[in-house]
Specification:
Helix Hairpins; 0% strand; elongated; transport
């Protein structure tokens, strides 16, 4: 019984995360300012990261968790670089 509950809850979580992914994509495409687009990109990578984690739980694979960790690291650095570019107009001084 508990395996069925886990499968069902993971399925629902993945559906809700997919809806969040679509909402972030819409905000990234329609964002009125560059700051809105960067925040949407940040939300997009966080939701994609969580989707990878749920896939790792569902498939019982360590590879998804490693990919999620790598995505978190690169997404954080990318967000910082884009924020610095918006503030100063250049990334590398």
């Amino acid at each position: 019984m508990s395996q069925a509950i886990l499968d069902w809850s993971l399925f629902l979580a993945q559906i809700m995360l997919a809806m969040g992914l679509l909402a972030a994509l819409v905000r990234m495409a329609r964002g009125p300012r560059a700051q809105d687009r960067i925040l949407a990109l940040d939300a997009l990578y966080v939701v994609a990261l969580l989707l990878l984690v749920t896939l790792g739980i569902r498939n019982d694979s360590q590879t998804y968790f490693e990919l999620a960790l790598l995505m978190a690291l690169l997404g954080f650095v990318g967000t910082l670089a884009l924020a610095k570019f918006l503030m100063r107009g250049e990334v590398i001084e």
